Amino acid sequence: MSARDEMLARIAAASQTGGVGVAVPQPSVSYRTRGELSGPELLDLLAGRLTDYQALVIRATPVTLADEISAALRRRQACRVVVPSALGLPLPDFVAATADTPPFLTPAELDAFDGVITRAAVAIAETGTIVLDGSPDQGRRAISLVPDYHLCVVEAGQVVHLVPEGVARLSAGRPLTWISGPSATSDIELERVEGVHGPRTLEVVLVSA
Length: 209
Known about the structure:
Layout: H1 3-17, H2 39-52, E1 56-60, H3 65-75, E2 80-83, E3 96-99, H4 107-111, E4 115-118, E5 122-124, E6 129-132, E7 149-155, E8 159-160, H5 163-169, E9 177-179, E10 184-186, E11 192-194, E12 201-207
Parallel strand pairs: 1-12, 2-3, 2-4, 4-7, 5-8, 7-12
Antiparallel strand pairs: 5-6, 6-9, 10-11
């Protein structure tokens, strides 16, 4: 029996019984759902994938985190930044941080900032993807899309190997933003253009345990 015939036979059977008692076969899972990497190897894979996507990666520890954030902002000359309401990160004295709280900043106001600083919900090493879910330490989607520079802090405990592991940590009811490198596109001549629908520069501070 061809696939077409099988499909039509199932439709006919369901029509006759009203859909009751028709067995629906469950798809078998043939893809990997758990990764093998952990520890430094996992962080190295994420850093490599992010670099491939032309993101900038900074390695830090809890002790050096404040200094690395300060150095990154100073290199970018980012003195005015927007932050989510519960960022919980140390910021240098030369930075004026504005929390995006109600009444929320408009797109025009966000565009006037030098950049945005957020945390992350999860990071997927295999694909070099960082996911934000709108939690108070990440803020609403607009603040990570409008400013031209995004500094994102990712903790080692937030890094997983494979996409299914990342999905398992996320809630489908939250506004998820999946980021794989800086915003970029290309035209028919394959000319790469960055910053079209998001930050032109993505910098990730990867904090080991």
